[in-house]
Amino acid sequence: MTSTVDGKTVRVALLGCGTVGSEVARLLTEQADELAARAGAPVELAGIAVRRPDKHPELPQHLLTSDAAALVESDVDVIVELIGGIEPVRTWLLTALRKGKSVVTANKALLAEYSAELSEAADSAGADLYFEASVAGAIPLLRPLRESLAGDRITKVMGIVNGTTNFILSAMDSSGAGYAETLDEASRLGYAEADPTADVDGYDAASKAAILASLAFHSRVTASDVYREGIANVTSSDIAAAKALGRTVKLLSICERVTADDGTESVSARVHPVMIPRSHPLAGVGGAFNAVFVEADAAGELMFYGQGAGGAPTASAVLGDLVAVARNRVLGGRGPRESAHAALPVRPMGQTPTRYHISLDVADKPGVLAQVAQVFAAHEVSIAAVRQRDRLSTASLVIVTHLAPDAALRATVEEIGKMDVVHEVVSVMRVEGED
Ligand code: NDP
Ligand code: HSE
Fold it and tell me: What atom of ligand 2 comes closest to residue 108's alpha carbon?
């Protein structure tokens, strides 16, 4: 194992010095004395790898390199990875961990697919792998799941973990505007990236859901296990339908422990837009903020809230991890290992119990409600509430279901959409946060 920790110095290689990395470098320099006191030894920035060193006149030039692979191999104790993406970063981090170097990363895309491989490399070399900043930026969330709640049984983790989509949905809710024009506005204001695909199509939230589900349920869940729908199909009609019922629309990452009738347990992990009551704690989370709601048997309900992105907020989580791994190295121990002992299977979305809100325009004549109700009954979907409002020859029908397998709810909606008496399926959305 490479180690320069002799009670004097922990040497750190910073891979990437963009939005987050530049803030980490700044704080490492500005708070050097305090960080040393907390870690138990000086934490020295020993090298910085960027793609284009000539574009970084603000950084100490003697630390800069474009050769990240060589920096990983050099005489450093900790790698802080803030480049992003899968390769070549995966290879570099595996190399570092196998050599016994600790790794701190904010890379959710990498962790959501390769956490098992990286954890195994860390375990076999006795190194640390910390990734608090990968989900919900500044919010201390992964360490509470991994450590503070290690003695409890978590049943649900549900939250807003993507600021871009929360900004767009909050703006649609307050202005009544459509998705496309609100996305344009978010881009103009700098809240959405030039290519917003990873955010608006739910890939970013799905990676975070995989990380949360793995930690909460001591199982291995990857991004490809997570059911995913983005917000591109959320219409102003959906938002208006939600408002009319005292609800709002949010893109949620929902990770649940599901217990079948025979007592067997599985994990459901999904990302999709949902209607939640305006009284729910997540409903009041506006703009680009993140919030995560956790339910556990003994602890009950917990809520974590704060800034989920941005250079300084994310750097706060990175530095927290850096102090922890530096302290571990100074003291000669290591932090908690990956815990995948429960190995719960992932439940397919079709079998996951969900509730739907369905808003329909139907012909206003006798027997229509009974015909519609018959379709729900045929799919064994129980109706929780029905509201009808008449408008000339049309009636507006709002139906909220009880919990049913998602596949049965989908099949119900598909069949209803084909009925002659149904003029239009105005809005279909899953409902969360109410019993
Ligand atoms: P940026 O795009 O701002 O910065 C990326 C950095 O990586 C740049 O300094 C770039 O160099 C460097 N880089 C790219 N390729 C290479 C390479 N091959 N070798 C060496 N350096 C390279 O990214 P962010 O700071 O926004 O994000 C970093 C990580 O943090 C990502 O995993 C992201 O998902 C995660 N994250 C980001 C958040 C945010 O708010 N931005 C929030 C939470 C997590 P150069 O400067 O020369 O181009
Ligand atoms: N693109 C992400 C967001 C950044 O909008 O929340 C934080 O991971």
Answer: 8
Helix (H) or strand (E) holding 13: strand 10-15
pLDDT of residue 349: 98
241-293 pLDDT tens trace: 999 989 999 999 999 999 999 999 999 999 999 999 999 999 999 999 999 99
- Structure confidence at residue 52 as a pLDDT band (50, 70, 90): very high
CATH entry 3.40.50.2300 includes domain 10-137+311-331: no
Task: Judge contact between 430 and 352, C-beta under 8 A.
Answer: no
Distance CA 64, CA 86 (A): 22
- Which residue has a Cα nearest atom 4 of ligand 1? 18
CATH code given to domain 142-307 = 3.30.360.10
Angstrom distance (rounded) from CA 227 to CA 415:
23
Burial of 29 (0-12, 13-18, 19+ CB in 10 A): exposed
Q: What sign for the dihedral angle of Cα 323, 327, 330, 336?
A: negative
Tell me the per-residue pLDDT of 57-91, one tens digit each, with 9 for 90 and over: 999 999 999 999 999 999 999 999 999 999 999 99
Q: Which residue in the list 101, 108, 208, 250 is annotated as catalytic?
A: 208
Looking up tokens 């000339």 gives 392
Evaluate whether the domain defined by 350-431 bears CATH number 3.40.50.150. no
Conformation bin of residue 338: beta by default, left when phi > 0, alpha when psi is -120 to 50:
beta
From 20, 87, 162, the mutation candidate for ligand 1 (largest count of ligand atoms within 8 A of CB) is: 20
